[in-house]
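hey
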């Protein structure tokens, strides 16, 4: 284990006095699944995630060792280097890692309580003025912080890939504090388009099941007929559970099967690793997560770096 991983605590299952079941026939003798978990400042993380580790060990019939990492970046680096085998990643972290190494097999994504497997970056406009992206040519677009996945990085990279160069297509990229402020700027007339996020699942009249539009509906009873969804990105996951692609195929298939039924078979184990997303796991694959890679191509990186500088900052305040 290299020093670059940061603080790592290895908990060998035998030390926890857990009985290790018989070895699965589809892995080599002596194989141990190395599960990485980001601890951060959570002093209780070991106790919290132990039910998940135990369930994997029992269901897979292989020993599962737990590695606690200080940061997601350190954990992702360890996964790419082959020092751990499995990790829960954010969608953005998965996209960065997969672009860098092309060595991951995404098994499942976590669903929210409404059953959404993720969200979309969404370009919205006033329904009376714009219906298509072309209607916004030469107009102003509200964008978020350059680090924002849904309000900057993914949509601007995706639009550029579709032939719409944000640097020349729009008259100005107006920097706002976030998607909610982008909606305010849209209705104030400060911009003609805004980048927000939404599951785009559920009833449109209520702003869908979650996201900026739903928040606006719940807080202001926004009439959704005043808005139009002009463009949407590919779906972006809330969380991805991925393993290294060089693990035995049969083990990866078994692990995916275990995870997709985990919330029903062992809800305590599920919530030990996903306390905030209560919908269970849905099977996924690399093609379904292609949208996460969009900001990380060399062309996209150059474009986003360029766009991060010259955006106009909106200083007019809230309406």
């Amino acid at each position: 284990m290299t020093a670059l991983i940061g603080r790592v605590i290895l908990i060998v299952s035998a030390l926890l006095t857990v009985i290790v079941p018989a070895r699965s026939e589809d892995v080599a003798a002596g194989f141990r699944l190395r599960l990485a978990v980001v601890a951060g400042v959570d002093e209780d993380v070991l106790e919290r995630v132990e039910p998940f580790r135990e369930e994997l060990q029992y269901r897979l019939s292989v020993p599962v060792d737990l590695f606690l990492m200080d940061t997601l970046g350190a954990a992702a680096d360890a996964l790419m280097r082959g020092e751990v085998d499995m990790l829960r990643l954010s969608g953005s972290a998965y996209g960065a890692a997969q672009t860098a190494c092309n060595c991951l097999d995404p098994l499942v994504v976590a669903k929210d309580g409404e059953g959404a497997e993720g969200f979309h970056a969404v370009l919205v406009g006033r329904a009376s003025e714009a219906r298509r992206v072309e209607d916004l040519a030469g107009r102003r677009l509200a964008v978020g912080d350059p680090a924002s996945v849904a309000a900057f990085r993914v949509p601007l990279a995706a639009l550029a890939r579709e032939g719409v160069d944000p640097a020349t297509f729009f008259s100005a990229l107006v920097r706002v504090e976030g998607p909610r402020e982008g909606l305010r700027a849209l209705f104030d007339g400060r911009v003609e388009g805004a980048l927000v996020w939404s599951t785009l699942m559920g009833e449109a009249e209520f702003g869908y099941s979650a996201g900026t539009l739903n928040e606006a509906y719940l807080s202001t009873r926004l009439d959704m007929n005043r808005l139009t969804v002009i463009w949407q990105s590919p779906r972006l996951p809330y969380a991805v559970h991925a393993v290294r692609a060089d693990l035995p195929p049969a083990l990866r298939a078994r692990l995916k099967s275990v995870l997709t039924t985990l919330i029903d078979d062992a809800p305590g184990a599920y919530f030990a690793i996903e306390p905030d997303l209560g919908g269970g796991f849905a099977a996924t694959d690399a093609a379904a997560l292609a949208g996460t890679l969009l900001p990380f191509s060399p062309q996209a990186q150059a474009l986003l770096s360029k766009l991060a500088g010259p955006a106009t900052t909106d200083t007019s305040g809230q309406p």
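Residues 118-235+296-313 form a domain with the D-Maltodextrin-Binding Protein; domain 2 fold (CATH 3.40.190.10). DSSP finds eleven helices and 14 strands in the chain.
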